[in-house]
Amino acid sequence: MSASMLRRGLELLSEDLKDVNSGPKHKKRKAGGTVKDLVSSNRHGVSKQLRRLQGRGEAAKSKATVKDKRVRSAIDEYRKKQTKSHLSANLQYLLGTGHAAKQSATQKIVNQNSGRQSRFQPDQPVAKPQEEKPVFTEDEFQEFQKEYFGKIVEGGS
Predict the structure, then answer these.
(1) Backbone angles phi, psi at 77, to 5 degrees
(2) Which pLDDT does position 49 carry in this prediction?
(3) Ramachandran angles phi, psi of 30, nearest 5°
(4) Contact status, residue 146 vs residue 152, Cβ threshold 8 Å
(5) What is the secondary structure of 125-146 as a DSSP string?
(6) Residue-wise pLDDT tens digits, 1-15
């Protein structure tokens, strides 16, 4: 590389650095300006940048401050979040009431609930296999033997 090329490159670089240093550090939003004015001119990431800029104003307004919060111990927080058992109170209520449900109503409920469970389903009736009836009667079979063999064959073998 020649010295003239290096000198020319340094001049161009120094001009770029002067432009960056002399310009304002932060763009300020104009009163009538839109969020799109703040977005860079790059093609990539414009919509993401818009979303980030639009969401920033709302999030800043609704931030909760530490001043309003009361500090609690971890044990108190744990106890507060644990569910309380209402079993004893419910049992007292059910045992203490003078009203009892009708026997027919309770029986209907029990029957309906037990009928829905698979273990309470009655077994399906098993169909008895029917005995096969021969197409020919014994007399017809003996007549066939006489005609075919000329005599009645006994013993089959």
Answers:
(1) -60, -40
(2) 79
(3) -75, 155
(4) yes
(5) PPPPPPPPPPSS-HHHHHHHHH
(6) 688 888 888 888 887
> Three-state secondary structure along 17-57?
HHHHHHCCCCCCCCCCCCHHHHCCCCCCCHHHHHHHHHHHH
CA dihedral 20, 23, 25, 31 (to 10 degrees): -140
pTM of the model: 0.18
Contact 77, 63 (CB under 8 A): no
Classified as helix, coil or strand, 76 is: helix
3-state helix, strand, coil in the chain (%, to 5): 55, 0, 45
CA dihedral 98, 103, 106, 108 (to 10 degrees): -160
User: How far apart, in Å, are the Cα atoms of 81 and each of 1, 5, 64, 84?
Assistant: 74, 73, 21, 9
Q: Which residue has the tokens 């098993």?
A: 126
**Chain CA centroid to CA 2, Å:** 68
What are the tokens at 90? Answer: 């419910």
Residue type at 24? P
DSSP 15: H
Distance CA 12, CA 19 (A): 11
